[in-house]
Structure formats: C-alpha cells, structure tokens
Design a protein that fits this description.
This protein is of the alpha+beta class. The protein has 3 helices and 6 strands.
Length: 141
C-alpha cells in the first residue's frame, strides 16, 4: 500500500470553495456550492476506485489536501496511479459545475513513515484554524 498526501489548488488561488472567518478558531470552512461538490466527489473516490481510500481531507477556500492510500486492486493489467485518479477527480467536478476550477497540476508526496504521517495529519487538522498563515491565503483588501 502507498500513502500519498495530495494538494490541489483552484486556478489563480481564487477562493471558490468556501470561506473561513480569519481569527476565529475554525475547525472546518463554510463550503460554497463548489466546495460541497468537491467534498462529495472526495467521498465518492473510493467507490470509483476500489483500491483507494481517502483517509483524511480538508477543503479549504482555494485548495484541498487529501491523504490517499492506494492498495492492490487484485488486477494485474490496471492499477490506478495518483495522476489517473486525480485527472478523473478533476474531470468529474468540471462536468458537474460546467467549467474547470483547478490549476493544471497538483502536488503529491509519498508518506514514508509514521512521523511523516502524523505530521501531515496534524497539518490537515489545523489548516482551517491557521488559514491566515497559509501560503495560499490572500488577504482581502
């Protein structure tokens, strides 16, 4: 089994997925209509690919983080890659809303040990509360 942390950003970092009240001790962003569609699509990933599981995720105003496991599908001819999974994920959302939200690429990192896993889990957990410190946060003028 391979465990990935994946980050995908909205084009030009526009805050289209939801809102966070900066300064509030936020546990979860208030999702927009688009953010709700993204969250539903995250939930359905395991149904689309029986060999993957989304262990943890957060939908932020302009990006998402997911911890995804990819196991053996039991088939020798086809094993989904992270690129294939995320291409399908983005495509499905694009079809549902009528335009592409996403930047072309994504960032992923293979989680190699328990310390790395725990550090990333904590980062995802705390991401909403630390929104104004996030590298993707743009102060509204």
């Amino acid at each position: 089994m391979i465990i990935h942390i994946v980050t995908m950003c909205v084009k030009d970092w526009h805050e289209m997925l939801g809102k966070i009240d900066v300064g509030a001790n936020c546990v979860r962003p208030r999702l927009s209509e688009y953010g709700t569609i993204v969250e539903k699509e995250i939930s359905s990933l395991s149904e689309t690919y029986n060999s993957i599981k989304v262990i943890k995720y957060v939908v932020m105003p302009n990006h998402i983080h997911m911890i995804i496991t990819i196991g053996s599908s039991g088939r020798t001819k086809f094993a989904p890659t992270i690129s294939r999974i995320l291409k399908q994920f983005k495509s499905s959302i694009t079809k549902k809303i009528g335009f592409s939200l996403w930047q072309k690429s994504f960032h992923d990192h293979i989680i190699r040990d328990e310390d790395d896993y725990l550090r990333i889990w904590q980062y995802i957990d705390e991401n909403p509360a630390r929104w104004n410190e996030d590298r993707y946060y743009k102060k509204q003028e």
